[in-house]
Amino acid sequence: MTRAQLDKKPVDVASMFDTVAEKYDLTNDVMTAGIDRLWRRAVVKAVGAKRGERILDIAAGTGTSSEPWANREIEVVPADFSLGMLRVGRRRRPDMAFTAADAMSLPFADESFDAVTMSFGLRNVADIDVALREFLRVTKPGGRLVICEFSQPVNRVVRTAYDKVVLRVLPSIARRTASNPESYVYLAESIQAWPPQGELARRIEQAGWSGVGWKNLTGGIVALHTATKR
């Protein structure tokens, strides 16, 4: 089975997600006990999309994260670099405009979206600074960025338990539901290696975004970073 490494070579990461596409949403639901649905609702609220706006949902996978906008007849482009994920998404929701796209080289014109959002995908990009600048390029002036990503729990006790217990048992849980359990070893490692909230906020700002801030969800296990384009 394909398993990406922390060097995050795009072809390896894409291939890994291809192998988990069929059961990806089910596995996420099981491993988070359904809390991922609350995180996704927080993203929709933070984006604050209105009819007439155009949303880029990058790393959308099978399109689960894009559905709330499509269901409200708001134009959304679910994009991902895993063709396996896109195939599952198109089969499930043929009405959505699934698009193959690499976060570091987006196939979209400058200033073509009112908002760009990415949920649990930035961690898998080989060069997040390049991706953040690409997001800025395709966003209209005054447009928004919303990044939802696993982060660092703010409570030391929770953080220790999370690192030493929760992340270590993820692969065991995945063996019961995932089509490629070994991929969840990489996912756990990538969560542990991810920078804390303030560090990511600094990098978003350095990429050219303004009004950068974040909100901790579930005690900082996940953080919602927001910014705007000047």
Can you give a write-up of this model?
This protein is an alpha/beta fold and 230 residues long. Helix content is 44%, strand content 20%. The chain is built from nine helices and seven strands. It has a seven-stranded mixed beta sheet, with helices on both faces. Strand 6 (210-217) and strand 7 (222-228) form a beta hairpin. It starts with 9 loop residues before the first helix and ends with a strand.
Features:
230 residues, 7-stranded mixed sheet, alpha/beta
- Structural class designation: alpha/beta
| Shape category | globular
Strand content: 15-25%
Biggest pleated-sheet summary: 7 strands, mixed
Topology:
Layout (H helix, E strand, L loop, with lengths): L9 H11 L3 H8 L3 H13 L6 E5 L8 H5 L3 E6 L2 H10 L6 E2 L12 E7 L8 H11 E12 L5 H22 L5 H11 L3 H10 L3 E8 L4 E7 L2
Brief description of this entry?
The chain is an alpha/beta fold and 230 residues long. It has helices at residues 10-20, 24-31, 35-47, 67-71, 83-92, 128-138, 156-177, 183-193, 197-206, and strands at residues 54-58, 75-80, 99-100, 113-119, 139-150, 210-217, 222-228.
